[in-house]
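Write out structure tokens for SWIM-type domain-containing protein.
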Amino acid sequence: MSFEIDKELNEDSMLMHKSRHIHCDSVETLTVDGENGPRFQNESHEGYKVHDWNMNETAINEEDYRMNTNPTSDKQVTQIGLFRTGSAQSAEILTMIDTSDGFIHDNPTIIEDVANERQNMMQQPIVSGISDDHLEEHQIYSSKKELQRKLYMMALKRKFEFKTTKSTTKLLLVECFDKECKWRVRATKLGISNMFQIMKFYSTHTCRLDMMSRDNRHASSWLIGESIRETYQGIGCEFRPKDIVADIRKQYGIQISYDKAWRAKELALGSIRGSPEESYNTLPSYCYVLEQKNPGTITDIVTDCDNQFKYFFMSIGASLAGFHTSIRPVVAVDGTFLKAKYLGTLFIAACKDGNNQIYPLAFGIGDSENDASWEWFLQKLHDALGHIDDLFVISDRHGSIEKAVHKVFPHARHGVCTYHVGQNLKTKFKNPAIHKLFHDAAHAYRVSEFNFIFGQLEMIDPRAARYLMDIGVDRWARSYSTEKRYNIMTTGIVESLNAVLKNARDLPVLQLVEELRNLLQKWFVTRQQQAMSMSTELTMWADGELRSRYNMSATYLVEPINSKECNVNYAGISAQVNLDTRSCTCRQFDLDHIPCAHAIAACRFYNISCYTLCSKYFTTKALLSSYSECIYPTGNEIDWVVPNHIRDKVVLPPKTRRPTGRPRKVRIPSGGEGKRTSRCSRCGQYGHNRKTCKRPIP
């Protein structure tokens, strides 16, 4: 029983130091004999060892049994026999034995008391976090670094400095920087764990005030980064280095440099987001789990011969399924720059759902917007979509996009963004009237209306008219479009998505991809609930468009031609409607695929529901189908089950060299795009907003 108690005691021991064994053939034992009292005997016991204890060393026997005691160096602890009490209980006795004179000078200590005391010590909770600056003996910390962090923050808050006198893997000794001050802390490692426990703590400070400096020696960028770490949780935090300087001065009374504040910010962001290099290496495992969690998802990673990252593609299965069943086949593509350590370009392909909302379709990452990267991205998009009838691709006039679209989608129609063409006109011809006429001509439905407006533009500036003709009228003019472009004239859906991802583009590649997935998950859930709450046959946007046209048609005069065709007159202008072919000579019904005012007047005359003439893409049923599938998260990385051939795949960061100077965070404006002057809603003046307004209100 004594050996079992000894083993249990030593397994719970708190203090562990280097041991020094003394082997001998005989040890002194103490026998408690009830009536006769203790007798000191010299007996031979094999397997017993006498351990030498002193202030700096603690014994460990060969079985790693440990005891928490602190005797002096001239005494020895001897393992002793058994004694019996009236209750017939046996217990092992430890005693301090001075072997120099052969007598016992200390009273024996029953090991049960020691075990109880240590059991109480083990009930001390593990301290975590640095918000509380309370320190006391027997506190247990998860690691030595956690304890050091606590001490550093305590020094900042209480405005003193200390120095580390000894720091090893098993011991930490710190004391006040003032040699006359008695404040000090001693902590030791607990067994083979990483935990550290405070064994000694003198809390009283007697240091002089002139020992305190304006810039505390412990206010390192690492410590400040740890203290502001919670501020940077999530994305989009605008806690700038100068804000950190002001906050540290206000909170701790310490003046730090801008450079230190910047490093603290980078360290805080790094501890939250992880290493950019590790982000690339984890990407294959993430893609595997993403595909397993979301059936139909397509991902691809391309590396060069040196295993360095080159391209990435992702299209979520739920988006692909919704596109094939319920989304208009008009795809806008564009690229935007990334702002993380290794830079790059984010490629986006997006559509519009039946409620005129952004519908992300696919994402890609490459080095830049060049011929090779755009061709690779569009080829992966083509493989994901398959052959789509009446596909219409819209982009700006980037030369690489035009080449790639004609090569990868030879059957599709390629239109250009009217906004970008208009901005180029502003830059090249410097005439606001030209831009206004171009906008009206591009959005005209009738060919006759287009010819009239474009003729005016040609008379004002023939060079501008020739420039537009060289682009190709059918690529930017709605009235000359031979394919179903619907009402999508610009790449605004992609530009809007770029704005949504403004802060996410600062993230490392893995966190960026996860943010894209998370954004789609939120949008799918929200819009599915929105679609389920709609009580109308059409979506809210389509229903609003139809109602406004219905109100316009109230005074239209209908002249029937047959059971499906009629002539509609209003203010001296007529239009011929064919309800069977869903067309009107005004071209609005043909291009938007929502009945125009003339067609609605004809429906009212023939007593036909105008809802039946709307495209299926604008129905609430189609909207619900677009978001019917769920997008699932990948979960915690520690729980991923990934095959070895995937986990062992090496993806190194790309070959990228950051340019000199301050990193670019704002996109380069398009040609002709100028800064808009803000107008204050409080005083009505220009050049500032309501928040920064300083003018008194009379």
